[in-house]
Amino acid sequence: MAKELKHADKATQEMFKRAQQENLETVWDRYEEQQPQCGFGTLGLCCRHCSMGPCRIDPFGDGPQYGVCGADADTIAARGIARMIAAGAAAHSDHGRDVAHTLLMVARDPNSDYSIKNEGKLKAIAAIYGIETSGKDIKKIAEEVALASLEEFGRQEGEVKIATTAPAERVKLWREQEIMPRAVDREIVEIMHRTHMGVDTDYKNIIRQGMRSAIADGWGGSMIATELSDILFGLPNPLKAKANLGVIDPDYVNVIVHGHEPTLSDIIAVVSMKDEMKKKAEKVGAKGINLGGICCTANEILMRHGIPLTGSFLQQELAIFTGAIEMMVVDVQCLMPGLDQAAESFHTKLVTTSPKAKMPGVEHVEFHEDKAVEIATNILDMAIENFKNRDNSRVYIPDESEQLVAGFTTESVFQFLGGKYRSSYRPLNDAIIAGRLRGAAGVIGCSNPNVEYEESTISMVKELIKNDVLIVTTGCNASSCAKHGLMKPDAAFKFAGQGLQEICRAVGLPPVLHLGSCVDNSRILLTLRNIVSEGGLGDDISSLPVAGAAPEWMSEKAVSIGFYFVASGVYTMIGHPLPMMGSKNLDRYLTEEIEQEVGGKWAWEIDPIKAAHKMIQHIDLKRKELKLKPMMYEQVLQPAV
Ligand code: NFS
Ligand code: SF4
């Protein structure tokens, strides 16, 4: 059995203890049972790409150094990483494709349950695709934008057009390096081709294709997911909300949406607020429906509707263990197969909705965008119906939740910083130039039982803000920051350095800004682009005093994200290294040589304080290269070891 979770938020600690007392199995228990995990896999030295194998390379040099086909450690490790990128980029981009399909449906179906909520952004995206908008019906524009976005996935020749919105210097470099993506699907397919037995064996060449695919994710599929979601569901605006398991309310029918795509969760959010649903819930003795979210779909509806964030990835089973969840509705990605067992131990009804993600024995209510309200209503009716099956003697909800401000975007952050009437990046750039702000960091990503839950995330973020580095965050890292109170404006006074504090005080911002879900990392890319175009900090992302990190990364999506940040020129830090340390050449390429090619590079450091200081060193190096003023309020920095 696992130990206690010393660094997790209090609700998680409490629920984890309870799970152990009640013999309910969690992700941490299964992680323990898997120990020791396979060393070949951890080092990236196994291959089962053909049936002459599986093969493995001896990391100590005593045993085999080549697979049956002759592939060495470099090739095998690089192929493994590239396939991770392919899977991650595929997941994000398929999400983007689905949103594009929804937009197309809205454009063509006069009776659609969705509508166009943000005409301004629709027109801005139309401009990127060269679509004429003046005097044209809004639905017609939507149709053309949807079709142009869908083209980005399947085009055979040319370039991913939306990626050309990156800074001009960056696009030029991608073209020179031959990593400018042609189309999202094409790059992913090409990874699968090149990593098939007997194709590409040059580890650098394999990784370069990986980067091309990752760029097609960040500056393509993910960006399309974000931008078209803003068009369909509205541009988020800063709002107050609550986070953690304490948002579960025993008096209500509790429904959790879990997964990623806002097409389902947004409509459930809207339907759950209807009076008619409240009345139905009252009939069974509840006060109404209480909706909450887990994983990135939580971030989507948090940002747009203020729906509380029940928890992050590692809390999905714990939420069910409260005994007060009538239903958990899932769509795609980051759904633990173990949820089924968890739900079986309680009255919780688990419902799958996507034809892409079914679970054996679990009820499947397929979601179709053309009957969105009807299906969402049915799902909520099932939850209400299940209220009577709740065993009140088993209900245990930790009384822990935190306030947060969420809903920042590339557009809204800087409305804030520029003051209400002057939406501009100038104040941000000026704060960096003047040395009030050292720089900015995107700290993002998952949580993973292979490290102490939330220790890395929270101590890294605190260390960075203490040193006047403004944080933007997304995904489960954002949930962790919220649960630990780092997204309240007064967090600046408790934890931030003096310069960052002054900025937060002037504009009422928290020192850690919630930019949304994982596909919304594209908002970070566009923010970086806007900082470049505002001027004064060099002419490419690689010259900015910024860094990225995913201290507790877990998924293949995180690998794709890391690679698109590196390929965009960002120094990118993760805790546990990518599974490729068995190849010294690949390690050197990713953490050193790659910088010559794309201006960004990887770094691995498991100690979050040391990791934060390596990021600060990088930021300071960039400040020096830009000949910026010394920091206004110099901190006594711990040296990075
Ligand atoms: Ni991102 Fe979101 Fe969380 Fe990690 Fe999973 S929910 S898409 S992959 S675990 S941050
Ligand atoms: Fe082994 Fe080569 Fe086949 Fe991989 S591709 S399993 S290294 S023979």
Notes on the protein architecture:
It is globular, with a radius of gyration of 24 Å. The longest helix is centred in the first third of the chain and has 36 residues, at 73-108. Helix 4 runs parallel beside helix 9 (203-233) and helix 10 packs across helix 15. It is α/β, with parallel strands linked by helices. It folds into 3 domains: 73-233, Substrate Binding Domain Of Dnak, Chain:A, Domain 2, CATH 1.20.1270; 245-394, 3-Layer(aba) Sandwich (Rossmann fold), CATH 3.40.50; 402-625, Rossmann fold, CATH 3.40.50.2030. It is built from 25 helices and 16 strands. Iron/sulfur cluster binds at residues 47-50, 52-55, 67-69, 71, 76, 197.
Percent range for β-strand residues: 5-15%
User: Count of helices?
Assistant: 25
Q: What's the alpha carbon Rg, rounded to whole Å?
A: 24 Å
The overall strand count is 16
Query: How many strands, what sense, and barrel or not for the largest sheet?
Result: 6 strands, parallel
Shape: globular
Termini separation comes to 34 Å
Spans of at least 5 consecutive residues with low confidence: none
Strand order of the largest sheet: 6-5-4-7-8-9
**Number of folding domains?**
3
CATH architecture of the largest domain: 3-Layer(aba) Sandwich
Which CATH first-tier class of the largest domain would you pick? Answer: Alpha Beta
Determine the fraction of residues in helical runs and give it as a percent range: 40-55%
Mean pLDDT: 96
Class from helix and strand fractions: alpha/beta
List ligands, each type once. FE(4)-NI(1)-S(5) cluster, iron/sulfur cluster
CATH fold type of the largest domain: Rossmann fold
